Amino acid sequence: MAVLDPFTLSIVSIVLLCLLGLPIGHAMIASSIFYLMLSGLDMGTAAEQLLNGMFSSYILLAVPLFILAAELMNSGTMTLKLLAFCNAFVGRFPGGLALVNVVQSVIFAGMSGSAIADAAGTGKMMQKMMTEGGKYPPAFAAALTASSAVIGPIIPPSIPIVIYALVSDASIGYLFLAGVVPGLLMGLVQATIILTSARRREFPLEEPVPLRELPRITFYAIPALMMPVVLLGGIYGGATTPTEAAAVAALYALLISAILYRSVSLSSIYDSLLSSARTTASIGMLIAGALVFNYVVTIENIPMGLSGWLGGFDLSPTGFLLIVIAILLALGCILEGTTILLIIVPVFIPTANALGVDLVHFGIVCVVTIMLGLITPPYGLLLFIMTNISGRPLSEIVREVLPFLMSLLVALVLITLVPDISLWLPRLFGYNG
Description:
The chain is mainly α.
């Protein structure tokens, strides 16, 4: 590759534009147009690729709808009902509030589909609950909240899985199912870390909720707990597509919050719509930039070139997956997860196909790896969010997050080496992979 060939210059321009403060989506669009100009190609192709990709992909509509559902939940009291339910059942154990943090992330994962939504929504509440009265060190509470939030995009619904389905053409329904057991495994390893360190660090015991209160707390939490049932039941019952299910989830969150819990006002609904629109616009511009830049990558024949290069090493499927994990973890330290899913992962898909790697299993491995990048120093977007929420230095939170990160890496290795962890549930519903 020549030092000053158009592709190299387009990569350099992306880096420079990002360093100057331009959002990466805008930088990719500008650099792709720059590449087309240098290559003597029609620069209008950039607009064609953007419009075709954004407006012909029905599945992309699921992204703003899942975001809206999470915003409506946070604006009402659905989240508080879920926290009370979790506390009633696991709060009584050593490190009870820490366990509540993990369990609520597992449950809330079935509603928001976003690690950022989990950390910014229930994460704020958990940080306050855990540090009130000096119960837990603020840095530990922040690290745990960041670590448990990565479960959100693994258990369905999942915005990253929707995006992976877009770039891979794998079944979104089977991908959703494939995330359930790995997500539960990630919650289990985090709970194990909490239980093993609770006595050593003298974490407090919460006052047990009387058994006579459990039916009442469960009753009030049932409407919120039914969200995943409504969502997944519609998809796997054949009544809705994943995109339609996302619309149903948003409507369900609105009706439950407004009518049953009576906890939202017109102004809070407006705020939810506004916040959802802003987040969607940000993600949408990133997707638009990736669609245009992926066209450049295709012109340069990068995926097939990489496939041929990796094929020269005579890799086994497991060896290939381990290399992909290493690359994605390294990139996760410096890049945002959606960018990696849209730009880097598609480059590996032809090789995965050639080696016979199941694309549903491959998708779960990629999404889990990318989510771990959210808590991997030095970038770790969730670490920065929790630094802002907790008011503690990043160095303290990094020190506390390392045991959780190590345990999640163990879970990732198991998910990678044992495909049945991901594929057992989809196969139960008829998947032939």
